[in-house]
């Protein structure tokens, strides 16, 4: 008698013994089948950090993170290519290149590419400048605020070659990463993306 | 009988599926966590080993002198300040909010250290054609509004900042006057909090000048800060 038949027989006997047991088992299995993974499936990513502050105005919401929180967004390990642009509303070249980042996010949205705009606006300017900027320009990419004034402690962690000037951009997918301390036009941005993606 | 068997098998199968799929979710999450940590640690490692490819001065280099137009329309050179033991050269400008956040602190630095032999020399590296608020006239206005006590020079033609390797405003170079020339002793930020002067815990520039005045080694020789890219 093979092992499998053995199990099958035992099973048979169990099944025969109690109708109540059968019903219980069936209900239990159904419950498990539909709810067993609930925790794992509904919580998108348990590692996602909590913002240090949430700014809201006129339907625009921006989460603020310190560097420890922002690191999550710089180290996501999925099949998406992330284009992370460091900018501020007062930074003229940043604002000039923003349409290209928006266009990139739109054109490549079905291609596992996500654009994240990390604002370095000062906290006192968030409500007066940043939130209205996002609303007025109808910014579609996700915007977060990096609120961590001890910049010397984190600039080199983003890239050892970054002097701290903005605009600056990180493009990464899993462990592959490029850093640019420069302004982009759309073609340059696409070729930078292609070199990673 | 047969129905019971099928039902039973289905029950067992669904329990198994539920368990297996939960397990794989769990292990995926674990992998993810490990992945993040691994990236972190390599990030730190590359921090140490990767050499910076940047032009401009490094600590220990001899910095060039210059002759640039001050807001009083007279040219200023480092060598003109004969009593100086060194200089706090700060690339800064009018329009940049980070530079603006430091204006009062720069004035305070000059007041504190000029008499001790380390005057502030501010240089606007931006091309006024590209940054209208950084024109010579606007520099004059800003300096008088903010009560600048130090020379505020225009890097006309944008020739000096690239030699120093400044990339942004504000960007500080502390020079020590020696027999061999003006030696770069510190490059970087003024302190560790652009947002709030009262929350500063590390005064990099003050610590460096204090050390130089005491004949000691500068404790932190290089720092980084967020700033506005220089508009050339």
TrEMBL record, chain B:
Family matches, as SUPFAM superfamilies: Thioredoxin-like (SSF52833)
Q: Where is the Thioredoxin domain?
A: 57-214
> What is the protein's given name?
Thioredoxin domain-containing protein
Gene3D superfamilies noted in UniProt: Glutaredoxin
Please indicate which superkingdom the organism of origin belongs to: Bacteria
- Species the sequence originates in: Flavobacterium suaedae
**InterPro entries linked:** AhpC/TSA, PRX-like1, Thioredoxin-like_sf, Thioredoxin_domain
Pfam families associated with the record: AhpC-TSA
């Amino acid at each position: 008698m093979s092992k499998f038949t053995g199990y099958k027989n035992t099973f048979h006997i169990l099944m025969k013994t109690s109708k109540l047991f059968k019903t219980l088992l069936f209900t239990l299995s159904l419950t498990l089948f539909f709810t067993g993974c609930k925790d794992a499936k509904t919580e998108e990513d348990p590692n996602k950090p909590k913002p240090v502050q949430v700014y809201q105005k006129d339907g625009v919401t921006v989460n603020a993170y310190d560097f420890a929180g922002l690191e999550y967004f710089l180290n996501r390990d999925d099949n998406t290519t992330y284009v992370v642009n460091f900018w501020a509303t007062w930074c003229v070249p940043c604002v000039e290149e923003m349409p290209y980042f928006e266009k990139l996010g739109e054109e490549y949205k079905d291609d596992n590419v996500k654009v994240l705009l990390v604002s370095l606006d000062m906290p006192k300017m968030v409500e007066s400048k940043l939130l209205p900027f996002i609303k007025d320009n109808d910014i579609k990419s996700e915007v977060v605020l990096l609120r961590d004034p001890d910049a010397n402690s984190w600039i080199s962690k983003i890239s050892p070659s970054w002097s701290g000037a903005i605009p600056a951009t990180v493009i990464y997918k899993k462990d592959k990463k490029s850093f640019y301390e420069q302004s982009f036009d759309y073609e340059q941005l696409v070729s930078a993306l292609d070199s990673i993606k | 009988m047969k129905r019971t068997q099928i039902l039973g098998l289905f029950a067992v199968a669904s329990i198994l599926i539920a368990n297996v799929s939960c397990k794989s979710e769990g292990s995926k999450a674990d992998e993810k966590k490990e992945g993040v940590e691994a990236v972190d640690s390599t990030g730190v490692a590359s921090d140490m080993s990767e050499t910076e490819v940047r032009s401009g001065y490094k600590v220990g280099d001899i910095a060039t002198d210059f002759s640039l137009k001050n807001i009083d329309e007279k040219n200023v050179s480092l060598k003109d300040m004969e009593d100086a033991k060194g200089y706090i050269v700060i690339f800064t400008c009018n329009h940049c909010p980070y530079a603006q956040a430091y204006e009062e602190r720069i004035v305070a630095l000059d007041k504190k250290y000029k008499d001790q032999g380390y005057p502030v020399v501010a240089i606007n590296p931006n091309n006024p054609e590209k940054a209208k608020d950084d024109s010579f006239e606007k520099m004059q206005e800003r300096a008088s509004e903010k009560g600048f006590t130090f020379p505020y020079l225009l890097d006309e033609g944008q020739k000096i900042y690239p030699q120093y390797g400044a990339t942004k405003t504000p960007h500080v170079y502390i020079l020590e006057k020696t027999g061999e020339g003006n030696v770069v002793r510190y490059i970087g930020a003024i302190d560790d909090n652009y947002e709030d002067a009262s929350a500063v815990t590390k005064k990099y520039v003050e610590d460096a000048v204090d050390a130089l005045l005491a004949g000691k080694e500068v404790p932190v020789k290089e720092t980084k800060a967020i700033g506005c890219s220089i508009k050339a």
